[in-house]
């Protein structure tokens, strides 16, 4: 497994790197035998240390955790515990959903745009102009089943996930609703 351990404007020493590789390796070996790479980034915000960790599994799923603490080792341990909890919570689901998958998840490319927020002045209301695109990026759209998409959304800790449904190839969306439930949008049925 490849590890990328870095710091944003802080020096990550050899001792911390070794500690991260050892502890994260033990956590991942308990739950999944096929991680491909892990990225751990440390940063400092005032007096708090922040640890972000993302682990890519060979099945195409990502596990992500973030934690803060007053000491850098404590921030990593809190992050590792969150990841451990996620993997423990989804161990059965990961095992059941991925045992029949012989190939990794396929990803397609899609355009992603960030639009400028609408201003409340009289000029923009009367002109009927389109919002300005302030960022263009390329996003990866995975081909997953609905259950795998919900699991990926929860593991990554994101509020919504756009994916290509592996049953019919159409674009679908799963999202976290305000009431805590998961919503699924499948526009294929509406013609």
UniProtKB/TrEMBL annotation:
<comment type="subunit">
    <text>Associates exclusively with 100S ribosomes, which are dimers of 70S ribosomes.</text>
</comment>
<dbReference type="Pfam" id="PF16321">
    <property type="entry name" value="Ribosom_S30AE_C"/>
</dbReference>
<dbReference type="Pfam" id="PF02482">
    <property type="entry name" value="Ribosomal_S30AE"/>
</dbReference>
<feature type="domain" description="Sigma 54 modulation/S30EA ribosomal protein C-terminal">
    <location>
        <begin position="130"/>
        <end position="183"/>
    </location>
</feature>
<dbReference type="InterPro" id="IPR036567">
    <property type="entry name" value="RHF-like"/>
</dbReference>
<keyword id="KW-0963">Cytoplasm</keyword>
<dbReference type="InterPro" id="IPR032528">
    <property type="entry name" value="Ribosom_S30AE_C"/>
</dbReference>
<comment type="function">
    <text>Required for dimerization of active 70S ribosomes into 100S ribosomes in stationary phase; 100S ribosomes are translationally inactive and sometimes present during exponential growth.</text>
</comment>
<dbReference type="InterPro" id="IPR034694">
    <property type="entry name" value="HPF_long/plastid"/>
</dbReference>
<comment type="subunit">
    <text>Interacts with 100S ribosomes.</text>
</comment>
<dbReference type="InterPro" id="IPR050574">
    <property type="entry name" value="HPF/YfiA_ribosome-assoc"/>
</dbReference>
<keyword id="KW-0810">Translation regulation</keyword>
<dbReference type="GO" id="GO:0045900">
    <property type="term" value="P:negative regulation of translational elongation"/>
</dbReference>
<dbReference type="GO" id="GO:0022627">
    <property type="term" value="C:cytosolic small ribosomal subunit"/>
</dbReference>
<dbReference type="InterPro" id="IPR003489">
    <property type="entry name" value="RHF/RaiA"/>
</dbReference>
<protein>
    <recommendedName>
        <fullName>Ribosome hibernation promoting factor</fullName>
    </recommendedName>
</protein>
<dbReference type="InterPro" id="IPR038416">
    <property type="entry name" value="Ribosom_S30AE_C_sf"/>
</dbReference>
<comment type="similarity">
    <text>Belongs to the HPF/YfiA ribosome-associated protein family. Long HPF subfamily.</text>
</comment>
<dbReference type="GO" id="GO:0043024">
    <property type="term" value="F:ribosomal small subunit binding"/>
</dbReference>
């Amino acid at each position: 497994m490849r590890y990328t351990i870095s710091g944003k404007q802080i020096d990550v020493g050899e001792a911390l790197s070794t500690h991260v590789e050892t502890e994260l390796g033990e956590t991942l070996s308990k739950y999944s035998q096929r991680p491909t790479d892990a990225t751990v980034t440390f940063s400092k915000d005032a007096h708090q240390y922040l640890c972000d960790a993302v682990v890519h599994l060979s099945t195409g799923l990502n596990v992500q955790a973030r934690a803060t603490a007053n000491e850098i080792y404590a921030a990593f341990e809190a992050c590792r515990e969150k990841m451990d909890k996620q993997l423990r919570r989804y161990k059965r689901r990961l095992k059941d959903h991925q045992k029949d998958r012989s190939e990794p998840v396929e990803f397609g490319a899609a355009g992603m745009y960030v639009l400028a927020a609408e201003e409340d002045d009289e000029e923009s209301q009367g002109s009927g102009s389109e919002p300005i695109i302030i960022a263009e990026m390329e996003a990866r759209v995975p081909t997953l089943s609905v259950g795998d998409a919900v699991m990926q959304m929860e593991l990554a800790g994101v509020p919504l996930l756009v994916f290509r449904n592996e049953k019919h190839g159409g674009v679908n969306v799963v999202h976290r609703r305000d009431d805590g439930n998961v919503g699924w949008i499948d526009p294929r049925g509406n013609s």
